[in-house]
Amino acid sequence: MHNVIKKILKNIESDTVYSGCTFYLDENVVYNIKNSHFENCSFRSSVCFGNLEMCGFSSCGFSNKVMVQIIKNDVQDHVFSLSFLTHLILYSPQNCERINSKLRTINLNSNDFILGPMNKLSSLISLNLSGNNIKQMPETIKELRNLEELDVSLNKLAAFPLYKNLPLKHLNISHNYLKKFPNTLLRYFRLESLDISNNQIRSIPSQILELKNLRQLNLSNNKLTTLPFELKALPCLRNVYLCDNLFDKNYQNYLCKELPHCNIIFTSSTTPLFLL
Q1: Mind giving me the DSSP string for 75-91?
Q2: CB distance 103 to 87 below 8 Å
Q3: pTM for this one?
Q4: What is the Cα–Cα distance from 221 to 234, expressed in whole angstroms?
Q5: Tens digits of per-residue pLDDT, 250-261?
Q6: Rounded distance, CA 57 to CA 44, Å?
Q7: Residue 265 in contact with residue 271, Cβ under 8 Å?
Q8: CB 232 within 8 A of CB 209
Q9: Up-side HSE of residue 153: CA atoms within 13 Å toward CB?
Q10: How much is the pLDDT for 136?
Q11: Residues of the chain with pLDDT under 70
Q12: 121 phi, psi to nearest 5 deg
């Protein structure tokens, strides 16, 4: 075991005991370390760790984001309970019941996850469940009282439920099996961005006027021929993406005149991919 004391470092190594060190690490690098221990250390930049096998932290300070990227399934329980962990990225099936921390972001993209009780994740702000073949939204989402960003794109959803008191601001429900605009979405009054592109929606309800905080709306790749007149009354709306729908040229010109305060996009090359 190698000992490093009171050094300013830009890298981390396995089989090392660090005492009183200050780290300035590259946040674009995943640090896969084993059997290392940190005592009274300071991490001044964002850091992304691998599985942290047999690693320990004692009286350490973290100034920015702390991410753990888990690829294999045999992860030690202590990784899920690290009090300083803010972002968790999983690439293997996991049980969320093991997670007990102050996490702000969880990425379960393309994962055969088991979404158990989530009441412990009271600090969670962002959750990515895209690409999981989900046919029905998990009821446990309602336990995430501070959730602001939710990505459920690339699934098999034909509906979206109403989670009471969920403070969603950004919702991506694109690339699903929606044939109708879910009226439940109209109850998420705090929404600032809504991506419902790449579905089979034929109409947008006039009640969309209720989403007064909406700034970005992506309706691309649906089967729309018209939009509700009320869309022009949304005070914050700035970007509307309408590529690959069934609008004729005259109606496109009409929309541009009716929504002069909006940037309206009809060409797919400029359609954004909304990711959390």
Answers
A1: --HHHHT-TT--EEEE-
A2: yes
A3: 0.78
A4: 22
A5: 999 999 999 999
A6: 15
A7: yes
A8: no
A9: 18
A10: 92
A11: 71-78, 80-81, 91-101, 111-119, 269-276
A12: -90, 55
